[in-house]
Please model this.
Amino acid sequence: MEYHVKDEALAEKGQLRIEWAARSMPVLRSIRERFAKEKPLQGLRLSACLHVTTETATLAQTLKAGGAEVRLCASNPLSTQDDVAASLAVHDGIAVFAIKGEDKDTYYRHIHQALAHEPNITMDDGADLVSTLHSEKKELLRGILGGTEETTTGVIRLRSMAQQGVLQYPIIAVNDANTKHLFDNRYGTGQSTIDGIIRATNRLLAGSTFVVSGYGWCGRGVAMRAAGMGAKVVITEVDPLRALEAVMDGYQVMPMAEAARIGDFFCTLTGDIHVIRREHFEVMKDGAIVANSGHFNVELDLEALEAMAVAKRPVREFLLEYRLANGRCLYVVGEGRLVNLAAAEGHPSSVMDMSFANQALCVEHLVKHAKTLENKVYGVPEAIDREIARLKLESMGVAIDQLTDEQEKYLRSWEMGT
Model:
């Protein structure tokens, strides 16, 4: 079997870590048990471009249990856990092409290798796989039934493709499922982003000013966790509704031009380009720490910072110091890439349980219904979303009420008023 990992000797360590993650993923485990019996993905070739973590490994094992031939590559050059990649290749017979810290050429070569078996289904996190298919591997498009997309940035790109009429097969936006973005984006990103920043810097958040750029679900999660650790949280936004919500949630809201002068920590979570730019770096405090938890590192204008710096050096693992001409030093975490994966281990497995349950069930849905779907971006079927929530509650030992016949009749009627 073809694969490319850093070191096969890491496989034993990776296997133990995968087993530990799986203990907190009961929903995906129940799906895997059913898939192993029913084989709903039998004969399917699936190419996945995801962060190669312990949780992703559990998803890959589930897809293989369902009968799929899985090829996996990384969706970010710094997000791969090398021991996990080795374990999947050595112990599970899954073709993995991922090495932490791989350069750009290797990253795209791995994407091509993940597509080499001519997939029927794609599974993406950021839409690099889909983009490569539509630009460089068009001959493979005719064999594809559909795909799934994990993250906000990828959904934005795919909707743009659909609007322009260039998307050649249906995609389910897993990111938009309530059991994904309301939990993974908020609680997962919130905890793991703070974890990555602290691991890289070992700085105290309490009493500091923490600037969060973007108040979507990910931004909400980071703001919540930073505030919980005692930081004074400042929000920057371009959307008046989200800015108003941040004010109502008790945070200061101001333009980045003002926040740049007072922040001790900065974290971007917008999905847009150059959110922190030269004019912001120019006024930051000496010692300011800058991180990004959006999918791509373009949220930080690192080229401008490179041009401003008179010297650059690594001072800790995943922490670069940029010394400016006036003697000030600014610090960038994880090369500006996804800080929760570049400098930490990504989302906790209990929250990824729901996200990846969505992935597995949406692939099954595509196999059953792809012929009736158009070449556009679809939401996760409500029945799947609700079933995942039900299974998660059940695994947590939580029971809820059910509507009585009288209540159901009332909700269906229009005659009954005051």
Observations:
- Residues 32 and 62 are 5 Å apart (CA to CA).
- The two ends are 69 Å apart (CA to CA).
- The chain has two domains: 8-180+347-395, 187-342.
